[in-house]
Amino acid sequence: MMYLTATVILSLLPILNSQYIHFPTDQENEAFSSTADLAALRGTPEYGMQIEQIISTGNTKLALAVNKALLQQASRENDNIVFAPVSVTVALALVLLGAKGKTFEEVSNVMGLAAGVDIQGKSLVVHEHLNNILKKLTKTTDSNQKLTIASAIFVQNDYPIRSLYKQTAKNIYKSEVLNVDFKHDVNKATQLMNAWVSERTEGKITSVLSEPPIDTTKVIIASALYFKALWEHPFFDGMTARKPFYTNGRNAPATMEVEMMANGGFFPYYKDPNLKCEILGLPYRGNETTMYVIVPSSSSAARLKEFESSLTQENVDRLADSTVSTGVVMLFPKMKIDTTINLKEVLKTLGLRSLFSPSEANLALLSPGEAMADAPSRASLALQAAKANPIAPEYDRRDVLVFSRSGFPENCSKIFDKNSTEKMCETTDGSKKVLYKKFGDKVGRRVAKRDTLDIVRRIVDEQSSENFHNPGLYADQVIHKVYMDITETGTEAAASTSISLSRDGSRLTFRVDVPFLFFIRHELTKTVLFWGSVTEPTPNFPRS
Fold first, then answer.
1. CA-CA distances (angstroms) from residue 166 to 89, 94, 367, 503?
2. What residues does the Serpin domain cover (predicted)?
């Protein structure tokens, strides 16, 4: 969750809403640009797969980077760390959507998008394909599994948000835009936000704000993730018992006991001689999502921290992909984890500094700020004057806005200049007229999500564009809260308990009674949903 405090607007949407839009043919496009048609390139499966792989890889890199930064900042060595990288990615994507300049560059770097994607010229492509990944994550063939990723933008009642930003956030990320009153009734605003999070997490997280935000808060961006699934091979019912847990390694005395669950069967397993660790996969029903557990050799709190500091994204993917079905008898802690993390200092450590600086942050695409709210451009004023009916404005059917899929002709870009008197890009008889309705409509869907937004983004990305003043918004906090409940979940294997747990030498033993790390990964997209580093499972009980 992000607190964005302080101030600024010039809406582009009215210019698009009241005209007909003509999209040139590929032959017409050649007159405007010598580059390849991005829309045609984007249509190839290979291109889409490449972009989604970059996003997924960036998500894993972000998980590792956040984990390492949190380890360095931990108040004590034995603190558990659990967070949801994909939830952080969605929140950052909403910031990226509204960012310009240095802030835009830093957010894209932290998200791992700097390599492999022309993020400056094709930022909308990233948002579109992240949306594709989110759709795949939430689509499941198992009715018992549920994954919900929700985001919302809470805005001060009288604070202006750019229409284009609002509509894009709604249509790509399904973000809700909710008006609140931080200025006069901050307690009610806090209650509304906590209620939103509680509803989206089905009551598991009832409060994400422990105290009300300051009354100068203008915007809060929130992202919530709820995940519930049954194990493909449930732990044995009735076999859970208290066992010692060795925080300082098996060679040191155990200082606590935990509820240890038991299971046996064939699970994805791999032992890496180079990294000196073991990894075991616990698939969820349907095998679409898996929890991977990694235990370093001779593990202890100190050894785990050392191991994690050298782990790379390539290591993580290779370890998971190297597992093979193996007969295993295992013990794993029953856990209930509830953590709250302020990621502000973590993100600053990772290079995202300008977002938290009142003098450097630039979220000009999110809002024009209060100073510009009452100062519409000449182009929009001229447009408003031409409206006889605000719902169904009059227009001349010969007047058509011309947009190029790969670039603007010179006179088109002038519409967005501060002192421009241009009312349209170009006039034509327009044999191919496409009525622009609104984002997401059947008629306008391809227009809004692929052509129009790419063009507008290109104009907005021009640093010399005078219309896009820095509104003075900056982030005050990044609050991230996770609740996780890991249980036996099922009794199907109870009848074969004695056979599954027999130690006849053909099955290896995987005892998770020392510090370990885990991550939950969606197999199709290789997206890490949750990441955890556990040195003291909770709940735990002092050893007598």
1. 18, 10, 10, 59
2. 64-537
| Rg of the Cα atoms in the chain | 26
The structural domains of the chain, ordered by start, are 2-9+37-139+146-228+340-363+472-480 (3.30.497.10), 241-333+496-542 (2.30.39.10)
Q: Cite the DSSP H helix spans in 111-176.
A: 123-138, 163-173
Total-model pTM: 0.76
Question: Does residue 459 contact residue 416 with C-beta atoms inside 8 Å?
Answer: yes
What pLDDT band is residue 33 in, cutting at 50, 70 and 90?
very low
Q: Are 486 and 235 in contact (CB under 8 A)?
A: no
CA distance 238 to 247: 26
105-150, pLDDT tens digit by residue?
A: 999 999 988 655 556 566 778 888 899 999 998 887 777 778 888 8
Q: Does a cis peptide bond (omega within 30 degrees of 0) precede residue 393? A: no
**E strands along 305-364, which residues?**
324-333, 335-342
Are 69 and 346 in contact by the 8 Å Cβ rule? The answer is yes
* Model confidence pLDDT, tens digit, residues 451-497: 444 555 555 555 445 556 778 888 887 888 888 888 887 222 222 22
Please count the helices (runs of H) and the strands (runs of E) in the chain: 18, 19
